[in-house]
Amino acid sequence: xxxxxxxxxxxxxxxxxxxxxxxxxxxxxxxxxxxxxxxxxxxxxxxxxxxxxxxxxxxxxxxxxxxxxxxxxxxxxxxxxxxxxxxxxxxxxxxxxxxxxxxxxxxxxxxxxxxxxxxxxxxxxxxxxxxxxxxxxxxxxxxxxxxxxxxxxxxxxxxxxxxxxxxxxxxxxxxxxxxxxxxxxxxxxxxxxxxxxxxxxxxxxxxxxxxxxxxxxxxxxxxxxxxxxxxxxxxxxxxxxxxxxxxxxxxxxxxxxxxxxxxxxxxxxxxxxxxxxxxxxxxxxxxxxxxxxxxxxxxxxxxxxxxxxxxxxxxxxxxxxxxxxxxxxxxxxxxxxxxxxxxxxxxxxxxxxxxxxxxxxxxxxxxxxxxxx
Length: 373
Ligand code: CMC
Hints:
By secondary structure, this protein is mostly helical. The protein folds into two domains: about 35-215 and about 330-345, Orthogonal Bundle (Citrate Synthase, domain 1); about 220-320, CATH 1.10.230.10. About 55% of the residues lie in helices and about 5% in strands. It has a three-stranded antiparallel sheet with strand order 1-2-3. Helix 1 (about 35-40) runs antiparallel to helix 8. It starts with 18 loop residues before the first strand and ends in a 26-residue tail after the last helix. The mean pLDDT is about 95. Carboxymethyl coenzyme *A binds near residues 258 and 309. Pathway: Carbohydrate metabolism; tricarboxylic acid cycle; isocitrate from oxaloacetate: step 1/2. One of its GO terms (molecular function) is citrate synthase activity. InterPro entries: 2-MeCitrate/Citrate_synth_II, Citrate_synth-like_lrg_a-sub, Citrate_synth-like_sm_a-sub, Citrate_synthase, Citrate_synthase_AS, Citrate_synthase_bac-typ, Citrate_synthase_sf. Belongs to the citrate synthase family. This is Citrate synthase.
């Protein structure tokens, strides 16, 4: 009899101290700290420190991390030259994946000890928004902007993308979104990173694997698809009929359902509120209102809750982000969690190598090619 658990649902594949999810209660903690508290009181920099070190930083430790991030935001000129070679129509997730793979070649350090890998985690986290923002400029024929020395991760990201200093609220919203996406236990991309790290492949290889897994629409790629759906619907009045038809056609509605949560995704709670407030501040609540109608309809007719990707779509769109940057923004946050998991995997490594239940043909004799037909 088969013992296979399709999709590894509820299979516990690692011991980890980093992130805990209670899917029934809708609770999410990073090293025991409630994500609601982090969203209210913390910053992305502080959250990344927590994920890498297992505790919140002192003021001095936080300042040191900010200085390290600021020192690592710029990209080598040869690397930027490489981005100019890519076709402008390339998907930003493909560019990001290619970029992280290429960055390995620019790493001057050869050591794979824990300290060097922590340095790589910081450098990768610092570099990712610069890569995404540089690509946004390059694909539009503009020179990439240099990061600002004394600004936060979120402010720098927005500045490098647009060339303008963001207002405080917009920078705060991105900062909270980065906190909310920073880690989520053994999701598909983190698992992919740990599988690669488990072979003792380097951190760039593990993160490249993670970006590949994140890009799919059943995982991080869902946020872009949510926004494309909202744009297709176009106006609040059309939302209910659109979803009704889509469900009748047995379509999967992006941004709903979750493998672990059986109740409200705690990240969606914050993103919903920010979607509303951003819309009100921008004088255009259309995307939020449409989202609310869809959410209510799906809850009532399918019993499914919105996940992290649903309201992040309207949040990023209202902030003025190009739709195809939604998933790269997710990656710019999750890099902190991926690297924390890679560090944890290296620290207590055992090759990850499960088995497959064989369901193919019985042993069969080899037939020479001239006798096949
Ligand atoms: N729309 C319509 N029906 C759905 C959806 C959805 N979004 N999600 C689940 N269902 C139905 C599914 O059809 C199935 O029904 P039935 O038992 O009648 O066949 C039932 O719910 C269980 O679904 P499942 O596919 O077995 O659940 P899963 O745990 O394998 O999949 C999921 C989880 C997230 C892949 C799935 O809910 C989904 O495809 N959601 C849409 C994509 C999405 O939003 N992904 C982001 C996930 S959360 C954050 C992240 O990872 O980025």
